[in-house]
Design goal:
The chain has 122 residues and is an alpha/beta fold. The protein is built from 5 helices and 5 strands; from the N terminus they run βαβααβααββ. The chain has a 5-stranded mixed β-sheet with strand order 3-2-1-5-4, with helices on both faces. This is Cobalamin biosynthesis protein.
């Protein structure tokens, strides 16, 4: 399983998410997307997932602090109690023993971040 985790601002659009994904994914084949539960239900993220035809794994904000992220963003720490929402959601969605294969990458418009994690479960 290869999961693309996302963090994004309220002003992000589908292009922001696509840009962050393109910059982070490399030649990997993503099997699912992940983000915080409240963000997963936003119209922009639902549209993004639908266009890609990928399932979305919703991660509870209560679980974010348990993920060991490599990046340490001040805003993520303040708002979500994690160093990186993208890294935390990717790791948590990929399951126990997951590992980051790409730390967070910021979209060129600075509205979205994407990180890639690999896990052994589906």
């Amino acid at each position: 399983m290869i999961v693309a985790g996302f963090g994004f601002r309220a002003a992000a659009d589908v292009d922001s998410l696509h840009n962050a994904l393109r910059r982070a994914v490399g030649d990997r084949r993503i099997t699912s997307l992940a983000t915080v539960g409240d963000k997963a239900d936003t119209p922009v993220f639902r549209q993004f997932a639908k266009r890609l035809g990928l399932p979305v794994r919703r991660i509870s904000h209560h679980h974010l602090p348990s993920a060991k992220t490599q990046s340490q963003g001040a805003m993520s720490q303040t708002m979500r109690q994690t160093g990186s929402v993208a890294e935390a959601t990717a790791l948590l969605a990929a399951g126990p023993g997951a590992r980051l294969v790409q730390t967070r990458i910021i979209s060129t418009d600075r509205m979205a971040t994407c990180a890639i994690a690999e896990g052994d479960t589906d």
